[in-house]
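Task 17 of the worksheet. Students: predict the tertiary structure of the chain below and write it out as structure tokens. Keep your answer in the requested format; marks are given for formatting as well as content.
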Amino acid sequence: MKLFALFTNKAPTKVFLSMLLGIVAGISYALLIPVVLISIGSRIDQNASASEMTRTFLGFEVSNYKFALLFVSICIFILICRSISHVLLTRVALDATTELRIKTYRRIMNAPIAELEKTGPSKLLVAITGDVARIVVGATLVPNTVVNVVTITGMLGYLFLLSPDIFWFTAGAIVFGVITYQIPMFIGRRYFQKGRTKWDALQEAIRGLIHGTKELKLSKVKRDRYFSEVLLASEYEVLHNSKTGNTVVSAAANYGDLLSFFVVGVVAYIFVSYHAISTEALVGAIMSLLYITGPVAGILFALPNMSNAKVSFRNMNRVLDELSKENANEEIKPLPEWDSVKFSQVHYRYDDSENSFELGPIDLEVPKGQITFIVGGNGSGKSTLCKLMALHYTPMTGEIYFGNLKIDHEWLNSGRQYISAILSDYYLFDRLLGSLTEVDEKLVNRYLTKLEIQRKVTVTDGKFSTLALSDGQKKRLALVVAFLEDRDIYLFDEWAADQDPVFKEVFYYNIVPELKARNKAVVVITHDDRYFHVADQVLFMEEGKLIRTERPSLELKEPLVKAADSVA
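Model answer:
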């Protein structure tokens, strides 16, 4: 069982000790019934008085005190062994599942951006939150299941001593029950698997509800269709499969639970008519059969949860298998001095049957101390080109150079350290993740004031007071973070799209020229043709091709002269 291997690989010694204690506890459980039966069936020594067999404890008279003491001792021993076994394996299970989550975090962190985009956030979130939770639940049931299995085995051994005929009949009934029990369990697992696959679609539908509420409120038809055809459709598919799976599994569990009583009934009313068996053996056998109904019920209760855990574990591995480790050296090294970024016959294709878009081959140069605009219609390849410049995508053919240094897997992560990007799908963290000093925070507050968001957000101990900002304000705050990074390359994907006219002018006439003056390579994806004169070069994209490059006049309009009032 691969799920159990998750724990044995984590702490084999602890798992072995836990299983050993569980086996000992199960054997001890199996001894309780024989102790009680022997105690009841024992005859008082004719030469011993009743008082010699009785002791007073806490005001109570305890008959046959030696067996009572043995019974209590076994119970205490079971309590200790079972508790230690359960605590040990539960701790290992929690450690292992936490390690599995951390492994997933690292896999996501080290995976290529293109693969993460293809997998999608919904699958990743369901795997980390839902699947891991089910694995934990299934894992924590393992200790009790082991104890129950050993208890049943021990009681069957005792049955064999009482009556081999009853033992073989009971063993046959258990084999029959296990085989017939697996049929509905198999059907139930199939429904659980179907339900699990629908969780991804439901998660995506919920994300659409949360992020698209503003759009849905503007159209009752759109809202009603989304609610019924997308959200409720996914919800009911999950509900149907979960209901059906649980119904089948519950019926199977009840069938397995009652099977023990069927065996008791057959032994008590039919079996005795065909086999010679003493009353003492019959009483012992029935007590033993009744005793194992609890462990049987425990196993049947655990099996659906463990089955769900196996499904989740397989799904977790499937998601992880979809994410390869990026072929990039983790060591960060300073790059040799460079003055421009060059693309040489760079070609990129989306490896997706649903998206056959191709970019390139492209040749271009982005020098330091210059402003480069990338323009083109929707779907022309602007954002793809920007992600190639950010080194998020790696070319399928062609090369990217920083100066004379070719950026390959040896230099990929190192090259990224020179880039600051605010892409169209950027994420704004709630804190500054770089190292901070008091001076840094003063600088942050200065930038906030220059960008006129100082009344909306402040910085304390490197953490922003709020992210409840408009889209334009969030982008300004992201710009503050980019300024503090002080990288050599700045990439802006439609940064000014959410800004009012005043801040558009601030961006094009103050911010961008200031970065140029600091000898940064500035790349701006834009549709604002009225500001093209700000750029040193404008790259025109169409259907994944760089169709032409224009170099506007170096004389800038009057507002740019006001760049003395820069944000820096």
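Marker's comment: The CA atoms of residues 24 and 269 lie 34 Å apart. The mean pLDDT is 80.
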